[in-house]
Amino acid sequence: MAECAYCKGETELHNNGAPVCLKCSVAQEAKRRPPATQQQILNTLLQDFIELTARAEQATEEFEDLMRQIPSGLPHPDGTQRIKNASDKLSIARIELMKAHRRLNEHSGRAIVP
From residue 17, how far is each of 4, 14, 40, 108 by CA, in Å? Predict the structure, then answer.
């Protein structure tokens, strides 16, 4: 038996080549369905923006905390890798936040035009 890609439970079901249990498959399908109304779309976009803003703020705090620890006394490769990992996490969080912001702006721009 394969291990579900989401919950790590055992499954024989595959979705696009990836092992996935029935519960996770139903949950993922529900996420893929487009919201029915403009208000639902706006709520979804706002929720994504709020979640990604929180993730970017957390990544910023982690990066700043790490930078405050320098020099940390860690062996050079470990310290360098920790900084790189924190920087990568922060960059990805900011890129995702910009995408969410752009989607929200594009949707709001369409909704305002008569």
Answer: 11, 6, 31, 37
Q: Strand, helix or coil at 112?
A: helix
* Structural tokens at position 62: 């982690």
The pLDDT tens digits of the residues spanning 33-85 come to 665 688 888 888 999 999 999 999 999 999 999 888 877 666 577 778 888 89
Q: Nearest CA to 80 among 66, 94, 59, 95?
A: 66
Helix (H, G, I), strand (E, B) or coil at 33: coil
Neighbours of 59 (CB within 10 A): 20
Q: Report CA Rg, the chain.
A: 20
Which residue is associated with the tokens 């920087």?
87
